[in-house]
Amino acid sequence: MARSNVAKLLALLAVAPVALSCGGEEPNVWEPQLAGSWYPAGSATLEKMLDSFLAEGAKKAKGVEGRPIALIAPHAGYQFCGRCAGAVYATVKGKPYRRVVLLAFSHRGIPPRGVSVLDVDAFATPLGNVPVDREACATLLRNPRFRNVPAAYAGENSFELLLPFLRRAIASFHLVPVILGRLEESDFAPVAETLRKVIDDETLVAVSSDFTHYGIRFDHTPFTTDIRANVEKQDKGAVALILKRDPAGFAKYLEETRATICGATAIRVLLHLLPEKATGQLVDYYTSGDEAGRHDDCVAYAGVVLTAPGQWGTPPPKPGEKGAEKPAAEVRDAPISEAGQKKLLDIARKTLVAVTDGKDAPELKLDDAELQGRNGVFVTLNKNGELRGCMGNFKPATPLYHTVAAQARQSALEDPRFPAVRPIEVGDIDIEISVLMPEKPIKDPLDWEFGKHGIIVRRDWQQATYLPQVAEQFKSKEEMLSSCCRKAGMLSAMWRDPATTVLIYTAQVFGEKPPAKEKAK
Known about the structure:
The protein has helices at 3-15, 43-60, 78-90, 134-141, 157-160, 163-169, 188-196, 227-243, 247-257, 264-273, 289-292, 338-356, 400-413, 477-487, 516-520, and strands at 29-30, 70-73, 99-105, 115-117, 122-123, 130-131, 146-147, 174-180, 203-208, 213-214, 279-287, 298-307, 377-383, 386-393, 429-436, 440-442, 454-459, 462-466, 501-505, 507-511.
C-alpha cells in the first residue's frame, strides 16, 4: 500500500471508531443517553414505574386477541406518555418473540436521506442489555438505502424510549435497530420490501410515533376553538387509515391536514409491510394537555396494536435453515487459499458494481469452510494508484464472505473522506482485501514484529488499534505504541504500564493487482 494511502487509512482509523470498532473480548455496546432525564436511570425505580404502567395498561388492552405482529407506541418522557405506552406493551407482555424490528426516525434529520442500521452488538438499558440481531442487520445493510450512521442514534428519543418498555415486556429477543431519515415517495415500498427479508412469524415490528403536536412552537394551529376535540378528530382520522392499512390514503391525509404526526415516515413504512389480513385496534389515546387542563400547546399519544390470523405469513426458520440460530463461528487462524481469495475478490467486485449502480448487493450463499470464519476484514479501493475508499470491521458477526461484501459496500458508499463511488469510476478501481487473523495478548509490549503485526492497546474501556501496514508511518515500535495510546485517549507512555494490555494480530492481504515486487519480475 502506498505511503499516502496508509496516511489516509491512519486518519480514517482515528475518525471512525464505530464503523471500525476494534476487536476484543468486550462487546460493542451502545450506552443509553436519556436515562435519568426522560426516564429513571435506576433499575429498581424504572422497573416499578414500568410495571405500574403495564398493569394499568392491561385493563385497557383486554380487547386485543391473539399475539400482536406490530404496534405503534409513543416516545415522550414516561411521565407524559407512560400510560399510553403501557397499554400498548401490555398486549405483548410475556409473549414469545425471537426478534423485534424497531422502526424509529430521526428528529434531527440524520441521515438526511435513507435508513440507518447501527452496527453494534447490543444496546444497554438500566434493565440490562438488549442484544442485536447482527445477521438480520447485515442483510439490511446489503441494500444501498440502508447505512450504518451512528450519529442518527445520538440522543434520539424516538428510538431509546422504546427499549426499556420492550425489555420489560418481552423476556428475551434480539433487536433490529432501524432509524428512518428522509424518504422519497419512491423509497417506501422498496424499504418495506427489504425489511420483509428479516421478518417472520416470530418477529414483532415496533413503530415509534407520537401523534398531533399542537401549538405555535410546532407551527400547527389549524383550529383555535375546541382544540382538544379537534386534535382528537384529526388524530383518529389518521388512525382510521392506519387500521385500514391504506398507505396512499394515509399519505394523502397528512398532506391535506398537515397533521404533525412525528413518526409518519415509520408508520408509512409499516403500512407497506402489513399483510392483507392484519387488523388493528386503538388501545389508548390522550394528550399531554389533559392533566394540565390546557391544550394550546400539547402533544397527543395514540397506542395502536395490530394482529393477523396468520401472523406475517412467513414461518420462522427451522434448525439448519438460513436464519435459524446457529452456534457462533470463530475467527479462523489459517490463511485463505488462492481459490478462496478469488471468490472473495469476486464478491467484492460484484458488490461494488451493484451498489454503485443503486442496486442491492448480490445474495450470497457459500459453503466453503475457510470462508465461514468471523474474521475482521478491511476492503480497500484504489483508483489509479490512489486511495478511493477503505472501510473495515474488526469484530463482525457474519461469515467472512458476507463481511467482505458489507465492507466493499461501505468502502464504496460510506467512507467519510470521499464522495460515493460513481458507476463510471468502477472500471478504474482495484480492490484489495485484508483478512485479520486472531489477536493475542503479549506480556512484553515490544514482543512483536514491526510491519508484520497489527497492534491493539487496551485499558479498561479505552482501546485503539493500528493495522500492520500502518507501521511504515512510524520510525519504531515505541513510536507506534505511543501514537496508538494517544488515539485511544491515553497518555503516550501508558503502553508501558502493566495495567495496559497490548495485543497483536497479523493480516493476510491480497488484491486484484499483484504486489509491486511480483509486477517487477
